[in-house]
Amino acid sequence: MSKTTQCDDWYLCRLTLTLPSLSDLQWVMFPQPYLAAVGPDAAPGSVVYKLVARHRDGSPGAAQFLLVDGGEDCFDVDRSSGEVRTTGRPLTPSREYILTVQAVDTQGRKGSHASVAILAGFRPPQFTNTSYSIYVPESTAVGQAVAVVQAISFQRKTLSYMLLVNPGNLFSINQESGALSLTRAVDYESGPHLHHLQVRASEPDTGLNNIAEVAVHITDENDCTPEFMHSIYSRDNIPETTPPGTSLLQVLARDCDTGLNAEISYFIQSLDFSVSAQGVVSPSRKLDYERPNHMYECVVVAVDKGTPARTGTASIRIRMANVNDEAPVFSQTVYKTFLSEDAGPETLVAIVHAKDPDGDGVTYAITGGNEDSNFELDNQKGIIKLRRSPPPRLRGPQYVLNVTATDDNMAGGPLPLSSSAQVIVGINDINNNKPVFEECHNYSLNTLVLENQPPGTVVLRVQAHDADTGVNGEVKYGIMQRDGASPGFTIDPDTGVISTAVSFDRERQREYTLSVTATDQAEEPLIGICQITVLIADQNDNDPKFENSRYQYFLREDTPVGTSFLRAAAHDDDQGTNAAITYSLSHQNPAYFHINPSTGWVYVNHPISQTSRISQQIIATDGGNRSSSVDLTVIITNVHNQPPQWEQAEYWVTIPENTVRDSKIVCGCDVLSVYGHAELELNTWAGNVAPLLLRHVTYYLAYILFAISACFICCQILQSSESLYSQRETRANNPHLST
């Protein structure tokens, strides 16, 4: 029910009914039509017939069987077994009862109806087919069974079979089995193809019988071989210029079979000719007069489509007529010879020879490769020599001469024909040129390798050229090593590809100079050299480093906002943007201090009188986003305290280049304090420093606690090329005030 509508005194209901589809059960009783017989006095429950049904796919079908109509209540059907039984009601003798039955599957789907005819009395035999049609190959042996014609006896009697109609007594039948066989051989090609027989099946005891029609078809066997009308097909005086596809002749074969057995296809056993389905023979490629006996001979085959196929053959002979269609043919397509590059006049180079297949005379000429006129050719004999005057000047590695042979057209043709061959004259070289790196001046312009790359990284490929030939011009590459030290690079001796042998650190060495060699393979080799500078490109693999491990400062509580009081300095061993440092302070609220991101100067950003101690971190970040930090401690002092005083306001000192690390630069820098020496602390930071030294700390301050003197000590080797002058600012602090 899909919808219900209610009114005052009635209901409207809409029903949707789904009918089951038809079952796929099929009746499988045999034979048809469905016939049965029962004695008129049969006892109740006697089984007369059995119904059987299967699915269309042949699988057994679980079904129930229904008696739909007929039977006059004299018969019923067992729903499960399908057995048709008598009910016990009297049967009328010689009456035929027609029962309509149906099969139903387990899902309630019904199959098609079937009719079962039951005769109350004796029924004649029933043949398995109402009529028979059989096919007998003409090659069937005499006496071999060709078919079995059978019937069933409803009285379960033994049946006897007999031929009533048998034209020409060509067939015989076995009286007991109903097997039909030939009495003599048949031939499809000479006899009738169809025979009509009548077979009678009878019960000797009752005299009941039945007759069936049998149609026997004699079928063709492939027993005829295709035969050509002629054993030899020939054609004379065919010009050798006949184009492919031109019809030359037609072959024809016949087959006495029929149908596919008589359909013929033609094949030709030659690559020079083709044959069509109609037997037309034509050239498949250019024909040639210049062949044995000036004739083509091949075999054409006719094949029928029988199984197995039969074949017939015939010969084809095509005799040719000569035409000047063949160019002269050289004894070699390529002639090779060698000369020394200092060979003299009239030196024999080579002898070429060509023959014309048409029998024409031949003349020779050099048509290419002799631009310097070093070679001369005898046009009748084909002898090639070096010129007499002026003396030849040969250059390697070789000369390729094009030599043309032209016939005199005596065989008759539209034009004289010609062909060409090559004469390759190799020039034996003398090793008088050393390998040259033609791009050597460009190799160092853009050659670099990134630091920290694994060994085997390709750097560049070099190439050298040697003007000599052969082994004299074959180049092998190498790298010169100085004092047995490895240069850190390798080179492929054949390709010239330079690769790294180690992983480089730019901070240790910024560039390498390689001496690359190119050596020819002569017995006394010559060497070319190219010097290449390889730059080590920077990779951001170093953190910024502060000059001091911590920063401490004393500020008076009345220090104005905006006052710079301390400069942090850090350096980065990397290069370029990787070494560009930006300064920042850790977050604090309120932000008492700010720092200049470029210079590192720390200045007062907020009044500090309300606090006594401020701690933050100074952060240095390079261009590659690597960073480090140090602690900054600022102690706020009273305005009335007196700071310590240096004995001198400035100290000047000259430092030799390449000063060793940890060497003392200047000592004896005294500080005086009214509070005594035990209260003093010293620290230093970058002051007015040259730009390069902002990135490279070169010295630091060392002092002994409770002492009043300080020493500056070098922290790395100094180079005058980096800076000639720097200024450092040092402060002496006590817990209450500073100077």
Low-confidence stretches: 1-6, 674-683, 685-708, 735-739
Q: Whole-number radius of gyration?
A: 60 Å
Helix/strand-derived class?
mainly beta
Distance between the termini: 104 Å
Task: Please tally the β strands and state the result.
Answer: 60
Give the proportion of residues in helices.
Answer: under 10%
Structural shape: flat
Largest sheet: 4 strands, mixed
Overall pLDDT confidence: 85
Spatial strand arrangement across the major sheet: 4-11-10-7
User: Approximately what portion of the residues adopt beta-strand conformation?
Assistant: 35-45%
Contiguous helical run count = 1
Could you explain how this protein is built, in words?
By secondary structure, this protein is mostly beta strands. Helix content is 1%, strand content 44%. A four-stranded mixed beta sheet has the order 4-11-10-7, with no helix packed on it. A hairpin with a 5-residue loop joins β35 and β36. It is flat and about 160 Å long.
Question: What brief labels describe this structure?
Answer:
disordered N terminus; mainly beta; 739 residues; four-stranded mixed sheet
SSE layout and pairing:
Blueprint: E1 3-6, E2 11-14, E3 25-27, E4 34-38, E5 47-50, E6 53-55, E7 63-70, E8 75-77, E9 83-86, E10 96-105, E11 110-120, E12 126-127, E13 131-137, E14 145-148, E15 151-152, E16 160-165, E17 171-173, E18 179-182, E19 194-202, E20 209-219, E21 227-228, E22 232-239, E23 249-250, E24 253-254, E25 264-268, E26 273-275, E27 280-283, E28 295-304, E29 311-321, E30 329-330, E31 334-340, E32 348-351, E33 354-355, E34 362-368, E35 375-377, E36 383-386, E37 398-407, E38 418-428, H1 440-443, E39 448-450, E40 458-461, E41 475-479, E42 489-491, E43 497-500, E44 511-520, E45 527-537, E46 545-546, E47 550-556, E48 564-567, E49 570-571, E50 582-585, E51 593-595, E52 601-604, E53 613-621, E54 627-637, E55 645-646, E56 664-672, E57 681-686, E58 699-703, E59 709-714, E60 728-733
Parallel strand pairs: 4-11, 13-20, 22-29, 31-38, 39-45, 47-54
Antiparallel strand pairs: 1-2, 3-6, 5-9, 7-10, 8-9, 10-11, 12-15, 14-18, 16-19, 17-18, 19-20, 21-24, 23-27, 25-28, 26-27, 28-29, 30-33, 32-36, 34-37, 35-36, 37-38, 40-43, 41-44, 42-43, 44-45, 46-49, 48-52, 50-53, 51-52, 53-54, 55-56, 56-59, 57-60, 58-59
